[in-house]
Q: What sequence folds into this?
């Protein structure tokens, strides 16, 4: 098996034609995309090392899964702890929305701090 390297002329230079192997198509949710944006901007070496070693997609999918699970679990725990129930939703819908928005905002900040912006 012989591997031949091909080159492309770019001005005065010959650059090798490098192609990454095919990676499986994985849907990356909002948490994974936010983490990708963060590491691409603030941790460039880590980002490009994972990209070129073909582990970036799996890593981001894992981060997305962990963050989603953490978010859902914490929202349920906070709501239970603060007494935000379906009965409250039926009795006073605006108060329920206010409390749930507050809980979701706090949980989002926790997920950002613990998983996304690290």
A:
């Amino acid at each position: 098996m012989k591997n031949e390297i091909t080159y492309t002329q770019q001005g005065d230079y010959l650059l090798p034609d490098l192609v990454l192997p095919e990676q499986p198509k994985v849907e990356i949710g909002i948490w994974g995309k936010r983490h990708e944006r963060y590491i691409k901007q603030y941790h460039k070496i880590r980002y490009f090392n994972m990209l070129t070693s073909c582990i970036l997609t799996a890593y981001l999918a894992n981060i997305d899964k962990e963050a989603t699970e953490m978010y859902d679990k914490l929202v349920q725990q906070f709501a239970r702890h603060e007494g935000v129930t379906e009965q409250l939703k039926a009795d006073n819908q605006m108060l329920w929305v206010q409390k749930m928005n507050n809980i979701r905002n706090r949980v989002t900040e926790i997920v950002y701090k613990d998983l996304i912006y690290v």
